[in-house]
User: Which sequence fits this backbone?
């Protein structure tokens, strides 16, 4: 019998014992990471960042309230990084005072959001909005369509081959349409879902995270799968982003930030047959008690379920590394599943529980594959501990 990390690294067994969760040295403080990233990627000074982030946070809160308050009178909005104010489009001058009362700047525009939406639909845009992921066919003749609140137009992105159709749309709808030319058509992006293979399928993706204030997106996985400073890669060896932090041993989690290259789509999804299988949607997170059913998604053994058998366990992997605070469960886990999403099921909804760390295996396979009455022994690092650390530091939450 072997206790091993559930990546493709082969190691042998030591022992398991109980201990308080995260009983080791405190993690290093990195509260300046967000500011460093913004400075690096956007070329802003420390003073500019210090002024911008609180203003942006206020703008997001005001925007949410005005969307509800104005209803159909809401004509779109944008954050002006120079004035540090939220600008709200209105086609009815009578709504300007309400916008000002919320602390935003009203802007009277010619085209209402309803008018622009109708034009977008006529040009092949979506005529429905659904939280459920589904495949729909588009009749659009363009590379992309969007409603641009700054220009108060339906913005068309067209290749040279699509330019004639774009000119016809501009002639038909006049100044309600704007056109930009693309050198090449966009390449299809892939979904980054929990359980999908990462880094050549040596490990699996855990949970998508995001910062609601800045819009930055992240991925949580196991610490022993990646190294800080390296690039995390998804399907097809396509780059996802840089690993900001990786903790192993003592802990076993890591966080990577999406580099916004337009090639990945993220959301609260976990694959039931990774990669590119059916999906479940997660809502929030839990730190479920012993006896609770949990299921795990990973690139090797796909979607498997079991019971939580222990909490706050200390596991000594036979590489000589020790991890604290792990949750033990009986779902099948094998090499390659490391970092994958573990979920609980409460009230008909799936909740994030943690990312796969390791398992006790026989000849590199789940115990139940040898004798049906042998219970699997596997572990994940609780997302409650990950969010307690990464949440305050990067502003991240589950989707």
Assistant:
């Amino acid at each position: 019998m072997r206790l091993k990390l559930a990546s493709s690294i082969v190691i042998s067994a030591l022992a398991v014992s109980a201990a308080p969760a995260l009983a080791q040295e405190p993690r290093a403080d990195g509260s300046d990471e967000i500011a460093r990233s913004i400075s690096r990627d956007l070329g802003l000074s420390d003073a500019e960042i210090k002024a911008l982030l609180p203003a942006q946070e206020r703008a997001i809160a005001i925007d949410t309230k005005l969307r509800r308050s104005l209803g159909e009178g809401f004509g779109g909005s944008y954050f002006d990084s120079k004035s540090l104010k939220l600008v709200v489009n209105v086609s009815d001058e009578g709504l300007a005072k309400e916008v000002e009362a919320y602390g935003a700047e009203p802007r009277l525009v010619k085209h209402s959001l309803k008018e622009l939406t109708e034009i977008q639909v006529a040009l092949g845009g979506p005529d429905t909005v659904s939280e459920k992921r589904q495949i729909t066919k588009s009749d659009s003749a363009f590379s992309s369509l969007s409603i641009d609140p700054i220009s108060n137009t339906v913005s068309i992105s067209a290749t040279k081959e699509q330019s004639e159709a774009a000119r016809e749309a501009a002639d038909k709808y006049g100044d309600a349409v704007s056109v930009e030319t693309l050198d090449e058509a966009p390449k299809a992006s892939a979904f980054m879902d929990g359980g999908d293979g990462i880094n050549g399928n040596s490990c699996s993706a855990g949970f998508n995270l995001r910062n609601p204030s800045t819009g930055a997106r992240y991925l949580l996985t196991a610490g022993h799968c990646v190294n800080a400073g390296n690039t995390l890669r998804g399907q097809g060896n396509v780059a996802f982003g840089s690993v900001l932090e990786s903790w192993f041993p003592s802990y076993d989690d890591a966080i990577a930030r999406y580099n916004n290259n337009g090639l990945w789509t993220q959301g609260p999804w976990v694959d039931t047959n990774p990669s590119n299988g059916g999906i479940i949607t997660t809502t929030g997170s839990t730190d479920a008690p012993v006896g609770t059913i949990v299921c795990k998604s990973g690139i090797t053994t796909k979607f498997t379920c079991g019971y939580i058998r222990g909490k706050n366990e200390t596991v000594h992997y036979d590489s000589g590394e020790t991890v604290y605070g792990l949750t033990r469960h009986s779902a099948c886990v094998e090499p390659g599943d490391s970092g994958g999403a573990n979920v609980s099921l409460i009230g008909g909804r799936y909740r994030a529980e943690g990312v796969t760390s390791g398992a006790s295996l026989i000849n590199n396979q789940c115990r139940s594959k040898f004798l049906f009455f042998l219970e699997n022994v596997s572990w994940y690092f609780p997302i409650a501990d990950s969010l307690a650390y990464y949440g305050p530091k990067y502003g991240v939450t589950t989707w």
User: Anything to note?
Assistant: The chain has six helices and 26 strands. The chain has three domains: 1-30+188-399, 35-108, 113-129+137-182. The first helix runs from residue 33 to 42.
